[in-house]
Specification:
Elements lengths: L2 H4 L18 E5 L2 E4 L4 E4 L2 H4 L8 H11 L13 H13 L4 E7 L2 H16 L3 E6 L7 H6 L17 E5 L12 H18 L6 E6 L2 E2 L5 E2 L4 H12 L2 E5 L13 H5 L5 E4 L10 E6 H4 L15 H16 L2 H22 L3 E7 L2 E6 L8 H13 L2 E2 L1 E3 L5 E4 L7 H19 L1
Parallel strand pairs: 3-15, 5-6, 5-7, 7-10, 10-11
Antiparallel strand pairs: 1-2, 2-3, 4-12, 8-9, 11-12, 13-14, 14-17, 16-17
Helix pairs in contact: 3-11, 4-11, 13-14
Bound molecules: pyridoxal-5'-phosphate.
């Protein structure tokens, strides 16, 4: 039965949720979504980088069912339950040393709040550095770091104090030109100038950064940038926080993007795919850092919920058993190469960027300016032809590919054919 014949969906749900589509979705299976009126869509959004294994992976569903029948909720303050203990141990094994200890929350923004509190508490310092274009969530603390659009902040000020935004190196849009090394040098010099003129590094608790800027345009940090941040954090006693809420869990071709860069943060923040569809997030750091956080200084009723933790464990086991991290790296590079070939044919594609299966296709006008209209046309065309895709970028002129890591080839190919036709349609 169609949802709309039961009840008007627009009446009781808050209009604050920006609806990209009004699709009546009944179920998902793998990389397909099915509507209540019998349509099937190819899903290139994956619940916004959540469904690393596609919808309703049997191993995840089984784990959820079993755990739901055993213990659905306790509250982590009231005892130890196996899925959470095992998930923490699994993350400790998968994350680079010395990141071996986790605090669990429910959402990405909540984990960012936790990371802010941990950094301020551990260092005794107030200030935070984030980057223009960054998205870290919408709660008041995380929203204070977010700078991917003033609309996220407008109407909510005053936000958290002592937050400073520096420039993220984005070679395609940098006034310094497209040379990544030059752009990185410029961004680091600007940061040093911020420290000299505006905020003493002695008062900075942490630098918070996405190793691949997500919402802001799918821009992988160019070589040398994260190393430069690491060096400054070490020099000034600041913590380096990687927001890997979108980059984590295999998407970039390493379990965590920090491993692809060979730069270890002090705090690794995870969310989205960690629960393979159930809400769970984590603030991962060294034992020593977590031990600066006395019992009771932070907490959460539902954080690390047993069912979500069981889903996370089951999903991670599939990712490892099926070599999906390696697949993300190979398939991502192959897909990006195919998209670059498309860019050679269609000048509206200004750049194809990727780190593994985190792929951004940026659309430009004849003068190189952001082409938001082309993206709107392409997304609409794709949806009309059965493919759900999503944009990003501070000018909404980038289309991001964030398929499931295990998307079958024929589904990927079918979706790509529609995308290619959509680009031709927009160019024409
Ligand atoms: C990099 C990054 N950080 C934080 C968040 C916020 O996560 P949540 O929506 O679960 O609060 C997101 C969500 O898109 C994100 O991409």
């Amino acid at each position: 039965m169609a949802l709309s014949t039961v009840i008007d969906p627009t009446v009781h749900l808050s209009p604050v949720t920006a609806r990209v589509t009004d699709l009546p979705i009944e179920r998902g299976e793998g990389s397909y979504l099915y509507t209540t009126d019998g349509r099937r869509l190819i899903d290139f959004v994956a619940g916004v980088a959540v469904h690393a294994l596609g919808h309703c992976h049997p191993a995840v569903v089984r784990a959820v069912r079993e755990q739901a029948g055993r213990l659905m909720h306790l509250c982590a303050n009231y005892g130890y339950y196996p899925p959470l203990v095992q998930l923490a141990a699994t993350l400790a094994r998968l994350a680079p040393p010395p990141l071996d200890t986790a605090f669990f929350g429910n959402s990405g923004a909540e984990a960012i709040e936790g990371a802010i509190k941990l950094a301020r508490h551990a260092t005794g310092r107030p200030a935070l550095i984030a980057f223009k274009g960054a998205f870290h969530g919408r709660t008041m603390g995380a929203g204070s770091l977010t700078a991917s659009g003033s609309r996220y902040r407008e109407g909510y000020e005053p936000l958290l104090g002592s937050v400073y935004h520096a420039t993220y190196p984005y070679p395609l849009r940098s006034p310094l030109g497209p040379d990544p090394a030059r752009v990185v040098a410029g961004a680091l010099a600007e940061l040093d100038s911020l420290f000299e003129l505006v905020v003493s590094p002695k008062t900075v608790a942490a630098i918070v950064v996405e190793p691949v800027m997500g919402e802001g345009g799918y821009v992988p940090a160019p070589p040398g940038f994260l190393e430069g941040l690491r060096e400054r954090c070490d020099r000034h006693g600041m913590l380096l926080v990687f927001d890997e809420i979108q980059t984590g869990i295999g998407r970039t071709g390493a379990m965590f993007a920090c491993q692809r860069y060979g730069v270890t943060p002090d705090v690794l923040v995870l969310g989205k795919a960690l629960g393979f569809g159930l809400p769970i997030s984590a603030v991962v750091a060294s034992r020593a850092l977590h031990e600066t956080w006395p019992a009771g200084k932070h907490g959460s009723t539902f954080g690390g919920n047993p069912v979500a933790a069981a889903a996370g464990l089951a999903g991670l086991a599939v990712i490892e058993a099926e070599g999906l991290v390696e697949r993300a790296r190979e398939l991502g590079d192959e897909l990006a190469a195919r998209l670059r070939a498309l860019a050679d044919r269609f000048p509206i594609i200004g750049e194809v960027r990727n780190l593994g299966l985190m792929i951004g296709v940026e659309f430009v006008g004849p003068d190189g300016s952001p082409n938001t209209e082309a993206v709107q046309r392409i997304l609409r065309y794709a949806l009309e032809h059965g493919v759900l895709m999503v944009g990003c970028g501070t000018h909404r002129n980038v289309i991001r590919f964030m398929t499931a890591l295990n998307i079958p080839r024929h589904v990927l190919d079918a979706g790509l054919e529609v995308f290619e036709a959509a680009v031709a349609h927009a160019e024409g």
